[in-house]
Amino acid sequence: MGDFGLRPLLPRSRILLATAGLLVALFAGPPAVQADSFVLLATSDGVITPVSAEYLHDALVSAQDSGAQALIIRLNTPGGLDPSMRLIIKDITGSAIPIIVYVSPSSGRAASAGVFITMAAHVAAMAPGTSIGAAHPVAIGGGEMDKTMTEKVENDSVAYLKSIAAQRGRNVAWAEDAVRKSVSVTEQEALKLKVIDLIAEDLPTLLKQLDGRTVPLQSGPTRLHTADAAVREFPLGLRLEFLKTISDPNIAYLLMTLGTIGLIAELYNPGAILPGVVGAISLILACYSLQSLPVNYAGVLLFLLGIVFFILEASITSYGVLAIGGIISMLLGSVMLIKTDVEFLPISWAVILPVVALVGGFTLFMVGMGMKAIRRPPVTGREEMIGLVGTVKTALAPHGQLAVHGELWDAISKQPLQPGDEAEVTSMDGLRLHVKPVSKKGG
């Protein structure tokens, strides 16, 4: 009975506590770590090209503007173009937030240009089953470098990678061997040699290992708090996805084929419009794709000559000689089109053979249809009338009328014919037919 007097106070105390909690929540604002509660993830999978450089630049700008704690670059590349690689490294070294390069997934690699990008990162990590190395520069300009030029390019690459390694406190001696001797190592070896900083099975593991790490930036050291950070993926976008697709040597080859056929078809059939429009657009896109590839001009000429042979076969009766020459010329031109030792640049045989077979087969089909048209008997004009059989309408003695194809013709017959008899056209003199009786079975 002694607590009866406190009952009216309990609801009031609860209201006061709830109000106080609400005011604290309103004026205290979000927790201090919420502003740094996410990292941005950009994925670079494939050859390092101008598209890759633009994508990673946009990802870095977005990460800095949105307040991301760090930018993680998930990397898997066989190498790429030196100018694009240097643009990426320039963005990394000048970044206001930490850049983590994570070589992933398992069986992935950071080769050639990927070595430079990985070693330039503030934190370099690899997934199990990956490799890094083989950074020797290769000429992809379509010509062989002489000994002096090879030494110049190699020395420049060595100096650049050693400078990057020294700046990040990584193994400078291995960096030189990666360029001069094209050495490659596994993730475990890379960690022992101090080429990378971490080995992580997946992104959550990587974030836990990064938590608490201090990263030196130009603006000063930054401490990472990534244990509970969310991961936001930065999309490639439709425009860059399209440019990346057409930058593939195989796609460039297809575009060049389509563009050449379209323009030649327009020249042979003026006013068709559609083949010319499609051909012009395809050729412009092919030029964009081929701008950074080592194009061999002899291969281009052979390729174009093969298509010209196919087109000529459709208009000139060569009994297949031009078509065979076109197939041989296109095959040789396709093989010679890209001149380089870099493994990811040559055009695939899986693309060359179907394209040549399709173009050759289509041309031979058109040639076959043309030959059938040549052998087909005439269906119009004077030649069409010869050999037709008609019915006599008025007596031919020797002049009269003959019905052929529902039309009445003046006719002359050396032998008398009566109405209802059948007569075969033997010749034509102006609009007059010369006919003869049709012999009947048993007659």
**Alpha-beta classification:** alpha/beta
The proportion of residues in beta strands is: 15-25%
The CATH superfamily of the largest domain turns out to be 2-enoyl-CoA Hydratase, Chain A, domain 1
Sequence stretches where pLDDT stays below 50 over 5 or more residues? 1-11, 22-36
Overall body shape: elongated
* Name of the level-1 CATH class of the largest domain: Alpha Beta
The CATH architecture of the largest domain can be given as Alpha-Beta Complex
How is the CATH topology of the largest domain named? 2-enoyl-CoA Hydratase, Chain A, domain 1
Report mean pLDDT, rounded to a whole number: 82
Helix content: 40-55%
Give the strand tally.
16
Query: Could you say how many structural domains there are in total?
Result: 3
Strand order of the largest sheet: 8-5-3-2-1-11
Q: What is the radius of gyration?
A: 39 Å
Question: What composes the largest sheet?
Answer: 6 strands, parallel
Terminal Cα span: 141 Å
Please name the defining characteristics of this protein:
443 residues, alpha/beta, 2-enoyl-CoA Hydratase, Chain A, domain 1, OB fold (Dihydrolipoamide Acetyltransferase, E2P), 3 domains, six-stranded parallel sheet, five-stranded mixed barrel, 15 helices, 16 strands, 49% helix, disordered N terminus
Describe this structure in words.
The chain has 443 residues and is an alpha/beta fold. It has three domains: 32-239, Alpha-Beta Complex (2-enoyl-CoA Hydratase, Chain A, domain 1), CATH 3.90.226.10; 249-375, no CATH class; 381-437, OB fold (Dihydrolipoamide Acetyltransferase, E2P), CATH 2.40.50. The protein has 15 helices and 16 strands. The strands form four sheets. Strands 8-5-3-2-1-11 form a six-stranded parallel beta sheet. The chain has a five-stranded mixed barrel with strand order 12-13-14-16-15. A hairpin with a 6-residue loop joins strand 12 and strand 13. Helix 3 runs parallel beside helix 4 (113-120), helix 10 (249-268) packs parallel to helix 12 (297-315) and helix 12 runs parallel beside helix 14 (349-375). The chain is elongated and about 120 Å long.
